[in-house]
Amino acid sequence: SWMQVTGMAVMTLIFALLGFLSPARRGSLLQSMMLVFTLMGVLAGYTSSRFVKVFDGDEARWKCTTLATAFLYPGLFFSIFFVLNLMIWGAKSSGSVPFSTMFAVLVLWFG
Fold first, then answer.
1. Using CA atoms, how far apart are residues 15 and 62, in angstroms rounded to an integer?
2. Closest CA to 47 of 32, 29, 69
3. What are phi and psi of 54, to 5 degrees?
4. How many Å apart are CA 22 and CA 70, to the nearest integer?
5. Three-class SS state of 37
6. Rounded to 5 degrees, what are φ and ψ at 3?
7. Residue 70 and residue 64: Cα distance in Å, rounded?
8. What average pLDDT is seen over the chain?
9. Residue 52 φ then ψ, to 5°
10. 43 CB neighbour count, 10 Å cutoff
11. Is the pTM for the entire model greater than 0.85?
């Protein structure tokens, strides 16, 4: 969702401006972006449920929208990132995110 991507971009830029992230270590930059993207799911779910309640008001619809926001968009994003990371890992690049970190992000996503 738009709020999740925007929140991730803003938080990553703030951490980079404060000096916590170095562009020389691309793996840590990607890792932090995935972590912040996962944490911004709370903001995305809240925003989507508020929009549904403001415009529709149906009790069951906002729950379905929140679940779709939590699983569909991040699931697609994580799957694409995981496949690309496997390709980078297969090329023996130092820019790949370690498998343990990918597993930790998966655990964060499912709670």
1. 33
2. 69
3. -70, -40
4. 30
5. helix
6. -65, -35
7. 10
8. 83
9. -65, -45
10. 15
11. no
8 A C-beta contact, residue 37 and residue 77: yes
Summarize pLDDT for 84-103 with one digit per residue, the tens.
988 988 898 877 888 888 88
| Euclidean distance between CA atoms 16 and 101, whole angstroms | 20
Radius of gyration of the chain measured on its C-alpha atoms: 16
Q: Which two tokens stand for residue 52?
A: 């549904």
Report yes or no: 106 and 71 within 8 Å, Cβ to Cβ.
no
- Name the token pair of 99: 């498998």
Q: How far apart are CA 103 and CA 45, in angstroms?
A: 22
Closest of 18, 47, 48 to residue 32, by C-alpha:
18
Query: How many residues comprise the chain?
Result: 111
Q: Which residues lie below 8 Å from residue 101, measured CB to CB, with a gap of 6+?
A: 31, 34
